[in-house]
TrEMBL record:
This is Probable branched-chain amino acid transport ATP-binding protein LivG. Residues 1-42 are annotated as: Disordered. Keywords: Amino-acid transport, ATP-binding, Nucleotide-binding, Transport. Probable component of a branched-chain amino-acid transport system. It holds the Pfam family BCA_ABC_TP_C. The keyword rRNA processing does not apply. It comes from Natronomonas aquatica. Residues 1-16 have a biased composition (Polar residues). SMART domains: AAA (SM00382). The lineage of its organism: Archaea, Methanobacteriati, Methanobacteriota, Stenosarchaea group, Halobacteria.
Length: 299
């Protein structure tokens, strides 16, 4: 875990590890000047800090001044009803959307407005659905294409004989890493299968495997279990917990509340673009605002 709790500024939203859930009443508004101050004071060890994030689409404010932190080595859940702004928040964090306001700090660096590949290259990675072009490639090829720091195919074609040896050496290393990843996710038997032929659950494993090939520090997973059968879901969860024990940090958007409650130690709840509450599962489960807005009487 981060060695930073308690070292944040007075307007922080640092509740990871705090015993009680907090709601909007306890989470003060952040002025622009405070955002600047917080950005400067954010400890470098803190993997992800979102400050006053805003995103509008025409007349819709999809994300409305959201602030939260994700602790190192944590499995943090982001939940909320349909249209709450979860995916838009993910997209703003990872550079897919340009935020209209606020800041995203990654390991103390301001990454707001950076391109997705720059953010991924720094170690903050989200999973993406397998694109159509990738469906026509094998599972092995999908992973071979993912690693960062690779001397690309274009360069390979134009390299001098001297460089070619380096490329081959690098490709051998990548191939070994790819096989290790395939075995870790138990999809090595599918290595030569076209990605387009995989089941929904197997695709989810491949998406996560591809994201891991980028060698991230923090993984953002948007509904990683959608369409995954229970046995594959259990396997995927097991792999996520194993990775977490190895030091990876996860931020997870998921509609299955029970799954989030059972697996995440910290939960962030969004509602109508705003942060509704955050805290440990038992507090979120009993939080009146969350029950009213989202969970219902039977939770
Ligand atoms: N590209 C877009 N253009 C216009 N409006 C958008 C766009 N993306 C999201 N929105 C709107 O922003 C709001 C938040 O959407 P978002 O997808 O972030 O919510 P969500 O919490 O991820 O929902 P869900 O759980 O249904 O996926 C919604 O009102 C949605 O219609």
């Amino acid at each position: 875990m981060s060695d930073t709790p308690g070292t944040n500024t007075d307007m922080n939203t640092d509740t990871a590890g705090s015993p009680e859930a907090k709601g909007p009443d306890e989470l003060p508004d952040i002025e622009d000047s405070d955002v600047e101050k917080a950005a400067q004071e954010t400890p470098r060890g803190l993997p992800l800090r979102v400050l006053n994030l805003e995103k509008r689409f025409g007349g819709i404010t999809a994300v409305d001044g959201v602030s939260f932190e994700v602790e190192e080595g944590s499995l943090t859940g982001l939940i909320g009803p349909n249209g709450a702004g979860k995916s838009t928040t993910f997209n703003c964090i990872t550079g897919v959307h340009e935020a209209d306001g606020g800041r995203v700090l990654f390991k103390g660096d301001d990454i707001t407005g950076r391109k997705p590949y720059e953010i991924a290259d720094r170690g903050l990675v989200r999973t993406f659905q397998i694109a159509r072009e990738l469906e026509e490639m094998t599972v092995l090829e999908n992973l071979m294409l993912a690693p960062r720091g690779q001397i690309g195919e274009k360069l390979y074609r134009s390299v001098t004989p001297g460089l070619r040896g380096e490329v081959i050496e690098q490709e051998t290393e990548i191939r070994e890493e790819v096989w290790e990843t395939l075995e870790f996710f138990e999809i090595d038997h599918l290595a030569e299968e076209y990605a387009g032929n995989l089941s929904g659950g197997q695709r989810k494993l491949l998406e996560l495997a591809r994201a891991l090939m980028v060698d991230p520090d923090v993984l953002l997973l948007d509904e990683p279990f959608a369409g995954v059968n229970p046995s594959l879901e259990a396997k995927l969860l097991e792999q996520i917990h194993t990775l977490r024990e190895e030091g990876y940090t996860f931020l997870l958007v998921e509609h299955d509340i029970d799954l989030i409650m059972e697996n995440c130690e910290h939960i962030i709840v969004m509602h109508q673009g705003k942060l509704l509450a955050e805290g440990p599962p038992e507090e979120i489960r009993n939080n009146d605002r969350v029950i009213d807005a989202y969970l219902g009487e039977d939770i």
